[in-house]
Amino acid sequence: MSAVDLEHAAAEVRRLVGQMSPLGPREPASEDRIIEDLGYDSLAIVEMAMTLETELDLDRIPEEAAIDVVTVKHLEELVIGILRRREDAS
Fold first, then answer.
1. Which candidate, 51, 52, 44, places its Cα nearest to that of 23?
2. Is the predicted pLDDT of residue 4 greater than 80, yes or no?
């Protein structure tokens, strides 16, 4: 997966996280904290993970991994890791 593809995936994560923020749509930065800065609770995090799976055609994001995410950057890294594993498996 190229660096451009990875950056596009990270940008899509930020876009979707901002769009779904319980505090209202916003443009989150990678360092924004999912709960404290963007207003997510555990249910909203699970819903966001399911949306990311659908929108980015991802394998399942483990619920425990999604809930353990602290910042948008951590979520970007989680998604990129899933994409890399899928590419390595093919």
1. 44
2. no
